[in-house]
């Protein structure tokens, strides 16, 4: 078995702030299914999308497993069928794909645990922290991925990409209003592998928050 040495910087970069579910199934996910999917999937290929319980209990005939695997979107047939080249059959929905934002919402929902309602941390206030680093989408990717984060107020931000040795490879910066923000990172000049990214939110030179994540480039 190989043993790897991680520098203190790399260990810091691997420390990701614990996140709690932000996607609300009833408000964010079911409306997508109602508008684009339910008319065809009322049981077609073993898939039912009329409500939360139906979705979670659906076993796809092609994949022979539940269509949603909580916390594992890459292993979930539901997510796979939304991508351009699914493992089985054609991309869904028939006649046109969902928008990138809709697919990202479904990805986040599964990654966060595929809950029916947003989770709240035990002992926390009613609402989760407002600054949130969401999972990059797609992941794995080639050659570009979208790093998404929410800001509570208008703030400066810096997105930095590192290799596993802790060396800085890319950096993007800007200023955005509060809400969901997306930064597209292009890794076309780099080899396949795992990379680390950090997002910092700043006001008047002071770092408000810093969170980190991992992403996989596959060429």
The gist of it:
This protein is α+β, with helices and mostly antiparallel strands. Helix content is 19%, strand content 28%. It has two domains: 102 residues, Immunoglobulin-like (Sandwich); 87 residues, no CATH class.
Explain how this protein is built.
The protein folds into two domains: 8-19 and 128-217, Sandwich (Immunoglobulin-like), CATH 2.60.40; 25-111, no CATH class. Helices cover 19% and strands 28% of the residues. It contains five helices and nine strands, in the order αααββααβββββββ. The protein has helices at residues 8-14, 25-36, 52-57, 77-80, 100-111, and strands at residues 59-60, 65-66, 132-133, 144-151, 155-162, 168-176, 179-186, 193-203, 206-217. α2 (25-36) crosses α5 (100-111). Mean pLDDT is 80; it is low at 1-20 and 120-128.
Sum up the structure in keywords.
5 helices; three-stranded antiparallel beta sheet; alpha+beta; 219 residues; disordered N terminus; Immunoglobulin-like; 2 domains
**CATH architecture level-2 label of the largest domain:** Sandwich
Give the structural class.
alpha+beta
Instruction: Count up the domains.
Output: 2
- Report the biggest beta sheet as strand number plus sense, adding barrel if it closes: 4 strands, antiparallel
Helices and strands, in order, run as HHHEEHHEEEEEEE
**Rg of Cα set:** 19 Å
Query: Kindly state the mean pLDDT as a whole number?
Result: 80
Which stretches are poorly predicted, pLDDT < 50 over at least 5 residues?
1-20, 120-128
Oligomer: single chain
Q: What share of residues is helical?
A: 10-25%
- Anisotropy-based shape: globular
Question: Going across the major beta sheet, what is the strand order?
Answer: 6-5-8-9
Number of extended strands? 9
CATH topology of the largest domain: the name is Immunoglobulin-like
What is the end-to-end distance? Answer: 25 Å
């Amino acid at each position: 078995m190989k043993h790897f040495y991680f520098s203190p910087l790399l260990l810091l970069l691997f420390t990701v702030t614990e996140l709690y579910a932000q996607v609300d199934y009833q408000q964010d996910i079911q409306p997508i299914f109602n508008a684009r999917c339910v008319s065809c999937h009322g049981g077609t290929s073993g898939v039912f999308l009329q409500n939360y319980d139906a979705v979670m209990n659906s076993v796809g005939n092609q994949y022979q497993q539940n269509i949603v695997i909580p916390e594992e979107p890459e292993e979930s047939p539901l997510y796979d069928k939304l991508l351009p080249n699914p493992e089985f059959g054609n991309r869904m929905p028939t006649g046109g794909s969902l928008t990138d934002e809709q697919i990202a919402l479904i990805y986040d929902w599964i990654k966060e645990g595929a809950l029916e309602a947003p989770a709240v941390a035990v002992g926390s206030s009613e609402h989760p922290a407002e600054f949130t680093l969401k999972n990059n989408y797609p992941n794995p990717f080639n050659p570009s991925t979208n790093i998404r984060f929410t800001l509570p107020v208008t703030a400066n931000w810096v997105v930095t990409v590192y290799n596993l040795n802790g060396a800085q490879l890319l950096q993007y910066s800007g200023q955005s209003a509060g809400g969901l923000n997306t930064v597209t990172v292009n890794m076309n000049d780099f080899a396949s592998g795992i990379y680390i990214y950090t997002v910092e939110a700043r006001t008047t030179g002071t770092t408000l928050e810093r969170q980190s994540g991992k992403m996989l480039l596959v060429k």
